[in-house]
Design a protein that fits this description.
- The protein is of the alpha/beta class.
- The protein has one domain: Response regulator (Rossmann fold).
- The protein is built from 5 helices and 4 strands; from the N terminus they run βαβααβαβα.
- Strands 2-1-3-4 form a 4-stranded parallel β-sheet.
- Helix 1 crosses helix 5 and helix 2 packs across helix 5.
- It is globular.
- It starts with a strand and ends with a helix.
- The relative contact order is 0.22.
- Bound molecules: 4-nitrophenyl phosphate.
- The site of 4-nitrophenyl phosphate has 10 residues, from loops.
């Protein structure tokens, strides 16, 4: 099984959005028995909390259900479980690189490397308005399609 972990700061906005969107695409393509999906935050502030209601609402309007998800913090053992560890922004990536054990054979990088978008980072929407949450979903949908196409080549 190919295991994918999405990581942001709080695990209540961007990475749960990626988790829900990518999982829905995997399921729609009948690949849920071969591709596993999870998400985590580099920080512990929101551990145990459901996704931010603004993320959940924007996702629900596009048909994605984030309600089962709960925040957790990324840990070193994630590097022994996940083949792809995908950071939403450069700061998340730096924090993951600090946690990465020597010899990790998987792919640690930016999620948007799988999108043809001009942006490289998914901007943190937490302190902004609704447009930021819509923009997160646009970026996440584009990168999820690219990621799934890449993983399909490896199956
Ligand atoms: P996320 O957004 O990293 O996309 O989940 C944030 C959530 C919470 C905070 C910052 C970003 N916070 O500072 O509490």
């Amino acid at each position: 099984m190919v295991q994918v972990l999405f990581v942001c700061l709080g695990n209540i906005c961007r990475s749960p959005t990626a988790h829900g969107v990518f999982q829905a695409m995997v399921k729609a393509q009948g690949l849920d028995s071969v591709i596993g999906v999870d998400s985590a935050g580099t920080a512990a502030y929101h551990v145990g909390n459901p996704p931010d209601s603004r993320s959940a609402q924007v996702a629900a309007r596009r048909g994605y259900d984030l309600s089962p998800l709960r925040a957790r913090q990324a840990i070193e053992e994630d590097f022994s479980r996940f083949d792809y560890i995908l950071a939403m922004d450069a700061e998340n990536l730096r924090n993951l690189q600090a946690l990465q054990p020597a010899g990790y054979q998987g792919h640690l990088g930016l999620f948007l490397d799988f999108a043809s978008a001009s942006e490289r980072e998914v901007p943190d929407p937490y302190y902004g308005g609704d447009a930021g949450f819509e923009h997160v979903l646009d970026l996440v949908e584009a990168a999820s399609e690219g990621l799934l196409a890449q993983i399909r080549k490896e199956l």
